[in-house]
Every structure is written in structure tokens, then in C-alpha cells.
């Protein structure tokens, strides 16, 4: 019966979001009510579960995701992304433009939220492709493969950050493992797959080709990369120090303190306010307005994350999660494959990678306890599944189609295939990594 109730609940969630076009947050709350009522819970108890689940998940995430959005805004508006791209292109030369854009996207994709990174990197790729007379799809797709990987696998992006919390994983280790998994994903889905796409010579719409910026107004290369990568440096340093240094020394305390995710993001935003703001001639009022806009940009995402946390709590309180975990354990399914498969199915149905990943978390989280699965790898497996085969119900599909002036069939053969390669290579890499990480 538990499986039937859960299946109907997920089906309702899919119908509400895709057919009824209902807001995802409201859809989550309605499904919470359905699951609770069909399991005999009182309205008051359901309401308490919804509030507890939302509070438990958002309580530790709002600061990290909020500061991450602020950092992304500073990187985007300062021109740091363009500085990084131009510098890497000059360094790589014309023959390695695809690799240069790939690396650029990976670097700026860490602090930038997906939609922001998308609209920054695509016009850049189109401009370079036209300048060097290269098929735009051949150059643009590798860049977006890196952007997809950071969106699905790496904190501080909303979905992987929320999954770290849901699975009680270690953010630093998840970040390190995420880098390992990311390498084969972006290489195979990016430059390797792009070699088959040189026949796509569609000329992008003129409105998507941006005018050149004054290079004198852009921040320097070192400050641009350092500002974008500082959270990764601080968090990774803390994780490595904790593994290698056993004594509780004063330097270790300092490194561990700065490597706390909240502190790492706060230090980075404060530094970037100077390096990418004040130092570029912007006033504190202008910087403050940008930071306020960044918070507005993520409001909807935070509500969706909160709704997913509520659903997880209702599934726990009704006992459905425990029953499902026991059932999945009894049929001896690999928990990593279970997470990937469920996320992939929901992604196919709903389109949103964020909703797919967070919905899956509420279903498979108990498997970590019952199976002893590594929670950090469960985050990555779920993230990989949530990227599977983007198609017509995903906004990214249409953005890519319109930017590159492709038909729906061509978009399926390029964009959808790239996302599928990222997803499949991602779960294969996670399964291989699971043999070495316990």
C-alpha cells in the first residue's frame, strides 16, 4: 500500500506541475496533505510535519544558498566571467577553444546559479564561434556540459547543497568527490561528444550576439578566478586538513573555521564585494542593490526546497520511507542505482533537475541507514539522475534551442544527448568511486 500511495503522490506532483502548471511549492504542500491524509494523519499533525520538514532543511541552507546567489551576482555583474573566458582563450589558442570554454564554464559555474551562468556563457560562446568561423553548437555545447555538472553535482548549487543536508553528507567530501566525478562527465559530454556536432551550422539569432565590452573596465584574471573559486579553496582545505592533521592544533582550528560552509561563503562574499565591486569603482549602494536582487532571484528555489523537505518529513512520519527502504533493501538493489533511477524517472516526467533531485531524496534517504551507503556518493548519484535526458518540459531545452536557432529534432540530438551523457557517465563514475570510498 505504501508504494501505491507514494506512486499516486508523485503522479499528482507531476500532473500539478506539468499539466495544471501549478507552482511547484504549492504542489509539494498538496501532495504532503494527500500522503498524510491517506495514511490516517490528522490535519494538525500533517501541518506540524510540513513545518518541521521545511524548517529542518532550510534552517541550515538559507545562509549558504543566499550567500552563493550573492557571490554569483557579483561574478556576473563585474565581468569576471568574461575576464576568465578571454584569458583562457588567449592562453589556449584557436585550436583549443572548446577546451578553453569548457574550463571557463566549470570555473564560473561553481559560484553562478545555472540560469545566470547559462545566459552569460552562451552569448560568449556564440560571439567566439562567429569570430573564428566555428559551428556555434560545436563550441557552445561543451561549455554547457560543464555548467550542467556544476548545477547537478557541486555545492553551493541549491540541489546538491540541499541533498547534502537531506542525506547528512559531508559538504567538503561531496565537493571533492564531485570534482572527481565531474572530470569524465564534462570531457565525454563536452569536447568528445562535440566532435560529432560540426555539421550543425545553424546561425544563432542576431539578438543573442552581444556587443563587445570595454576590457579596461573588467577585473583582472587573478582576482576573477580567486573570487569565483575561494569557497572551493576554503572548504576543500578544511576537508583535507581534517583528514591529514589529527592533532587539534591552532592552525587547524583556523583552517577548519574558515572551511565551515557558512564561513567560507561569508568570507568569499565580503572579499568579492571589494575585489569585484569597490575595486571596480562601484559604490556600496550599487553593490547592496545587486545583493538584494540576488536574494530575490532565489526566493522561488528556496520555497521549492522547503516543499521537498516537507514531503520528506511527511514520508518519515507516516512510516512510508522506512517501508520503502526495507522493500528496496530486500530486493538487493544498489542504493546508488536506486537513487539515480528514481531521480531520472522524475526528471523525465517533470523536467526540473532541482525538483527531481529533492523529491528523490525524500524517498531514498532511509536507504543510507539501512544499506550503509556512502551519503556523499548518494548525493552525486541523485544529482546524476536528476540531469537525465532534458527534453521539451525543461526550460533549459528551450533556451538552448532558441539561442542556437535549432529545430526540436536537432535540439534533441544535441542538448538532450549531452545531458544524458552527463547523467550516465556520472552514475558510472560514482559506482566506480564507490569501490574505493567507504
UniProtKB/TrEMBL annotation:
Keywords: Cell membrane, Membrane, Transmembrane, Transmembrane helix, Transport. This is Gluconate transporter. Pfam families: GntP_permease. One of its GO terms (cellular component) is plasma membrane. NCBIfam families: gntP. The chain crosses the membrane at residues 7-37, 57-76, 97-130, 136-154, 175-194, 221-245, 257-278, 337-365, 420-437. It is found in: Cell membrane. It is a multi-pass membrane protein. The keyword Transmembrane applies. The keyword Transmembrane applies. Belongs to the GntP permease family. One of its GO terms (molecular function) is gluconate transmembrane transporter activity. It comes from the Bacteria. InterPro entries: Glcn_transporter.
Amino acid at each position: 500500500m505504501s508504494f501505491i500511495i507514494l506512486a499516486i503522490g508523485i503522479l499528482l506532483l507531476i500532473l500539478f506541475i506539468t499539466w495544471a502548471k501549478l507552482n511547484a511549492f504549492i504542489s509539494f504542500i498538496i501532495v504532503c496533505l494527500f500522503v498524510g491524509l491517506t495514511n490516517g494523519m490528522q490535519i494538525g499533525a500533517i501541518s506540524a510535519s510540513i513545518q518541521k520538514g521545511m524548517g529542518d532543511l532550510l534552517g541550515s541552507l538559507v545562509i549558504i544558498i543566499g550567500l552563493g546567489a550573492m557571490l554569483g551576482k557579483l561574478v556576473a555583474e563585474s565581468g569576471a566571467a568574461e575576464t576568465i573566458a578571454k584569458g583562457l582563450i588567449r592562453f589556449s589558442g584557436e585550436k583549443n577553444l572548446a577546451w578553453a570554454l569548457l574550463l571557463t564554464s566549470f570555473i564560473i559555474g561553481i559560484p553562478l546559479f545555472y540560469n545566470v551562468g547559462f545566459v552569460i556563457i552562451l552569448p560568449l560562446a556564440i560571439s567566439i564561434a562567429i569570430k573564428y568561423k566555428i559551428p556555434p553548437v560545436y563550441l557552445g555545447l561543451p561549455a554547457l556540459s560543464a555548467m550542467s555538472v556544476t548545477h547537478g553535482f557541486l555545492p553551493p548549487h541549491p540541489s546538491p547543497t540541499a541533498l547534502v543536508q537531506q542525506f547528512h553528507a559531508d559538504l567538503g567530501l561531496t565537493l571533492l568527490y564531485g570534482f572527481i566525478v565531474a572530470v569524465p562527465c564534462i570531457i565525454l559530454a563536452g569536447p568528445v561528444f562535440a566532435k560529432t556536432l560540426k555539421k550543425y551550422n545553424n546561425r544563432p539569432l542576431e539578438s543573442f550576439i552581444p556587443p563587445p565590452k570595454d576590457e579596461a573596465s573588467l577585473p583582472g584574471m587573478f582576482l576573477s578566478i580567486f573570487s569565483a573559486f575561494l569557497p572551493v579553496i576554503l572548504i576543500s582545505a578544511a576537508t583535507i586538513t581534517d583528514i591529514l592533521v589529527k592533532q587539534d592544533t591552532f592552525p587547524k582550528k583556523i583552517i577548519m573555521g574558515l572551511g565551515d560552509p557558512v564561513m567560507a561563503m561569508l568570507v568569499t562574499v565580503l572579499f568579492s564585494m571589494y575585489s569585484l565591486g569597490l575595486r571596480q569603482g562601484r559604490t556600496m549602494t550599487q553593490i547592496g542593490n545587486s545583493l538584494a536582487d540576488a536574494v530575490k532571484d532565489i526566493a522561488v528555489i528556496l520555497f521549492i526546497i522547503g516543499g521537498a523537505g516537507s514531503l520528506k518529513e511527511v514520508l518519515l512520519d507516516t512510516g512510508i520511507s522506512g517501508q520503502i527502504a526495507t522493500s528496496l533493501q530486500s530486493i538487493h538493489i544498489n542504493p546508488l542505482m536506486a537513487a539515480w533511477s528514481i531521480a531520472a524517472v522524475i526528471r523525465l516526467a517533470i523536467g526540473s533537475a532541482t525538483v527531481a533531485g529533492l523529491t528523490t531524496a525524500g524517498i531514498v534517504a532511509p536507504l543510507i541507514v539501512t544499506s550503509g551507503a556512502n551519503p556523499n556518493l548518494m548525493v552525486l548519484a541523485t544529482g546524476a539522475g536528476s540531469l537525465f535526458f532534458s527534453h521539451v518540459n525543461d526550460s533549459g531545452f528551450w533556451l538552448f534551442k532558441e539561442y542556437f536557432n535549432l529545430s526540436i529534432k536537432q535540439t534533441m540530438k544535441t542538448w538532450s544527448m549531452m545531458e544524458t551523457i552527463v547523467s550516465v557517465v556520472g552514475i558510472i563514475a560514482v559506482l566506480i568511486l564507490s569501490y574505493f570510498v567507504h
